[in-house]
Amino acid sequence: MRRLILAAGAAALLAGCGNPAETAKSSQSPSPSPSIQVQRVKVGQAVTLSGADDSGGAGRLRLTVKVKQIVSTATGHGAFQQPRKGERFVAVRFVLKNVGDAAYDDSPTYGAKAVDGDGRTYDPTEATVTAGPGFPKVVKLQHGQARAGFIVFAVPKEATVVSVQYALNAGFAADRAEWRAS
Question: pTM of the predicted model, to two decimals?
Answer without folding.
Answer: 0.78
